[in-house]
Design brief:
Elements lengths: L4 H13 L10 E11 L9 E7 L7 E9 L5 E8 L4 E10 L10 E11 L8 E8 L4
Parallel strand pairs: 1-7
Antiparallel strand pairs: 1-4, 1-6, 2-3, 2-5, 5-6
Length: 138
C-alpha cells in the first residue's frame, strides 16, 4: 500500500517538530510580567511563583504555564509562558505565590485576553502585567 507523499511529509514534519522546542507550529508563547507586593506596597523578593494560563476560565482547559520561578529584588518576574497548542487566546491566568505542593494551587485569578502566538520576528509576543498583592507579614 502506498502513502500519499503529502501525508508522509506531514507526519515527518510533526515527528521532527516534537523534538525541537523552538518549532513554531507546535509551540506558541506569550509574556507575563508578574509583580508581587505586600498590602503596604513593599516588593516581595524571592517569592516562588506558579503561573497557569487557561483558554476559557481558570480551572478549565490549560494552555500552558510556568512554575518554580522566583521574583527579583523588586518583586518582579518576567516570564515566557509556553503552550504546545496552535495560536490561542488565554482568557484567565492564575498566579500562585509560594504554593504548597499539589495539583492546582490556590491563587489569584486574572481575567485577560492574552494571545499565544508563534515565536517569530514578524509578530511581537503578546504580554500582560499581573499585579499580585499578598498580606503584610508581622
Amino acid at each position: 500500500m502506498q502513502h500519499p507523499l503529502g501525508l508522509v511529509l506531514l507526519v515527518g514534519f510533526l515527528a521532527g517538530c516534537n523534538t525541537k522546542p523552538e518549532c513554531h507550529p507546535c509551540r506558541t508563547t506569550a509574556l507575563a510580567n508578574v509583580y508581587v507586593r505586600t498590602q503596604s506596597g513593599a516588593a516581595v523578593a524571592g517569592a516562588r511563583l506558579v503561573v497557569l494560563a487557561f483558554r476559557d476560565a481558570c480551572g478549565g482547559f490549560q494552555l500552558g504555564g510556568e512554575s518554580n520561578v522566583v521574583t527579583d529584588a523588586n518583586g518582579h518576574r518576567r516570564m515566557l509562558i509556553s503552550s504546545l497548542y496552535s495560536p490561542q487566546t488565554a482568557r484567565c491566568i492564575l498566579v500562585a505565590v509560594d504554593p504548597e505542593p499539589g495539583d492546582r494551587p490556590p491563587g489569584v485569578e486574572f481575567p485577560v485576553n492574552l494571545e499565544f502566538r508563534e515565536g517569530n520576528n514578524i509578530v511581537p509576543r503578546d504580554s500582560v502585567r499581573l499585579d499580585v498583592v499578598v498580606p503584610d507579614t508581622p
